[in-house]
Design a protein that fits this description.
By secondary structure, the protein is an alpha+beta fold. The chain is built from 7 helices and 8 strands. Strands 3-4-5-8-7-6 form a 6-stranded antiparallel β-sheet. Strands 1-2 form a two-stranded antiparallel sheet. Helix 2 crosses helix 3. The relative contact order is 0.13.
Length: about 230
């Protein structure tokens, strides 16, 4: 099997409970036999799942199943809401979807030429009818010329990796405390002048290109996260 297929199958097992939280992951040899591939492929999959917070490797090299939804630290990982919740519980309301000439600041963030065309998206994500976060996203038109508003109503990560066969590598994130504007408070169903966390993300593909510059505004003003030695 290909690494993507193995990754998706292991994620399915983790989310379904087939691989129990805090249990040890089967050995590389066992997984290689099960999926009929070499250990290098399994190692690649394991590293990818560690990056996505599904697995944790201890200092004594034991890999076990993590609970990606237990801590708020999913804010710190590049993950889709559908990685953490039942897709049927997720709703996305797109408030802005437009193709614009980018400002110099956004061009600098995306590392593209000045006056380049970019998609500008503002959307609110809900989980079980409760606001999870507000996103303002800029994506280069040159990379994603076929993007539609319907794509923005679901996982953009899935759109990027499935429709374009790009692979997301990592993001550079900066977390700040901000006082919300009135329209942001309304979209997030928060009192006026609320102060919350905002996560600025610059996302990179495996080919080195920047696929998005985004501002994700949460409803929380603090968060807890798991950190390991």
């Amino acid at each position: 099997m290909k690494s993507d297929e193995i990754t998706n199958d292991l994620i399915r097992q983790i989310l379904s409970g087939e691989l129990a939280i805090s249990s040890n992951l089967p050995s590389e040899n066992q997984l290689a036999i099960k999926y009929k591939c070499n250990r290098h492929t399994i190692r690649k999959v394991i590293n990818h799942l560690i990056e996505r917070n599904y697995l944790i490797k201890t200092c004594d090299r034991v890999t076990y199943i993590n609970n990606p939804a237990f801590y708020d630290n999913n804010r710190l990982f590049i993950s889709s809401l559908s990685d953490l919740y039942d897709p049927n519980s997720i709703l996305t309301s797109v408030h802005t979807f437009e193709l614009i000439t980018s400002s110099d600041r956004v061009c600098s963030k995306l590392n593209i030429d000045n006056n380049s065309k970019v998609w500008h998206i503002i959307r609110v994500r809900y989980v079980n009818s409760t606001v999870d976060h507000l996103e303002e996203i800029y994506m280069p038109y040159s990379l994603f010329p076929t993007l539609t508003i319907e794509d923005c109503k679901s996982s953009l990560i899935a759109f990027i990796e499935n429709q374009y066969d790009f692979k997301i590598n990592y993001g550079i994130r900066e977390i700040t405390s901000v006082k919300l504007k009135d329209f942001e408070c309304n979209l997030l169903s928060l009192p006026l002048e609320s102060t919350v966390m905002r996560i600025e993300n610059i996302g990179y593909l495996t080919n080195g290109r920047i696929y998005e510059y985004s501002l994700s505004t949460c409803t929380e003003n603090k968060f807890s996260y798991y950190c390991r030695r």
